[in-house]
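Entry for adenosine-5'-diphosphate complex. Fields follow.
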Amino acid sequence: MSTTVEKHVFQAEVNEVLSLVVNSLYSHREVFLRELISNAADAIDQLNFRSLTEHTLLGGDKDLRIELIRDEKANTLTIRDNGVGMTREELISHLGTIARSGSKKLMQSLSAEQKKDITLIGQFGVGFYSAFLVADSVTVVSRKAGSEDAWVWESEAKGDFEVRPGQRNQRGTDVILHLKDDAKEYAEEWPVREVVRKYSDYVRWPIKMEVEQGHGDDKKIEWITLNAARALWTRSKSELDDAQYQEFYKALSHDWQEPLAWTHFKVEGTHELAGLLYIPSKAPFDLVEKRKGGVRLFVKRVFIMDDAQEIVPEWLRFLRGVVDSEDLPLNVSREILQKDATTRFIKKQVVGKTISLLEDLAKEGETERTVDGETKKVRRYETFWEEFGRVLKEGVYHDIESRERLAGLLRFHSSSNDGWHGLQDYVARMPADQKSIYYVAADSLATAKASPHIEALKKRGFEVLLMTDTIDEWIVDALREFDGKPFVSAAKGALDLPESDEQKQAKEEKQKHFGPMLERVQKVLDANVKTVRVTDRLTDSPACLVSDEHGMSARQERVLREAGHEVPNQKRILELNPDHAVVKKMEALQDEAQFADWSSLLYDQALLAEGTLPADPAAFSKRVAALMAKA
Ligand code: ADP
């Protein structure tokens, strides 16, 4: 064994996290103990899991526990666990780099100003490095389970750390904090007891500490257990208060902020399980990338795995929490999980309980919440929707069984009111003669709102849902209807507006009257449009483009193309507003060249109004300029 001391420099991001943690979390520094105890509990969980198959791993040291050792003379606090321990290589990589790729990317993307923002720091959690909130220097002595060797890691957080061989009688890890002058209280009994009670009561392994018991001559020093040491989710709801649920969440997720909501449930019967699922207050900065964490799977209180994707559908990937099954075998692996019928049952419970939680939230009125340090009145469901709605929508598309319930949870913007609107409310507001749910999709709310396609609908007092997420049109296609009312795109097919016989007749006459002109336009634009017809869709604009009733919208086609799919160019229908001055003027235009110019202009305008760039923008502006010169 080498006896030399090695020096290593921290990965650049670690230095940043360190200075961030120390500077921004100063006023909350007591959380260091929650973070370190949480790491110790995880290490014991991992050991416990491995010992299921490696029967000799526990050896004589079967009493799994965390110990807090105070030394008031030396000014140290040690967090000791007899968990899985770390090898030399693990010490270097786990405590010298930031492994979670998400955190690293986040760190790199933050500006100096953002780095002062405590809520952003919360996104990746502080973890081990929070030790430096209270310590000038930290010594970690660790011995990996199954190994004879112990290693020491030591740092003053000044850019580097040291690794050298060490001594430890049994497996596990000591994190020794050499307390700062102004943090000496953490070597005293009561401050430590208080912090443990506040933040770590739920920890499922006993946290033990030596304390002075009794009075006068009866005084003696005794080890006591500071926490309840029962897995929080096994306790009954009536025993627990909000603060306990919140602390559990924070330690579990390393999230800095309070969770938005949670559901704690037990299922009994053929299958038994307990679950505690949380919805965070904020979406991770990159929801697409799955973060370590997710939902942890336990079997009979034994930790099995982090982020058990088999029991949580992709579209609930924002969930955090634990699920504890009584039925799965303890030696369950991902492969077994993928095949086991119990897995499907558990997943169904996770989905069902989460949807119920969301339905409850959706019914709730405003509550007072502190968001980013500001206390405001908010509807929790709206907060949820803004953070995670986009992900939940994937469920409408992918999960046929949940589709109907999820449809009730959808929220959209609407042409008649600001804010978010559910389909139930939309339907309730429909005037008697409105038969369909109208929607229009565009890249931005402003474009959707100003879309020519919805002019006539608005004029009639029909509300139009404004959709701006890429996935929206697909989920509407998947849903087809809500509450017996079909979804109708304002930009597809015919609008089927209720009309009187006279109105119908007038429309037919207009189509006939404009017939020859429509044919002339068609001739000019033949390469681009399928037909040209008069419309009752428009009131203010001269023209718009629509797709076939069952065809894809231009936006859907574009999205597919951008995703690398081959999509044939479908010609669309050009609709002209027979009451518009431009259209009336065109009818009288004899000069064929001029007529062709105007036709192209109408077509390009229709494209622009829906947010699409004309194929030849230069030609478009030339035509506009020529028109202006003539005016
Ligand atoms: P996180 O716990 O979020 O991964 P930390 O910075 O808190 O981040 O810890 C980094 C890693 O160091 C942990 O993932 C774990 O592998 C290891 N580690 C920390 N503390 C211990 C411990 N007491 N015993 C074993 N491993 C530990």
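NOTE: The mean pLDDT is 90.
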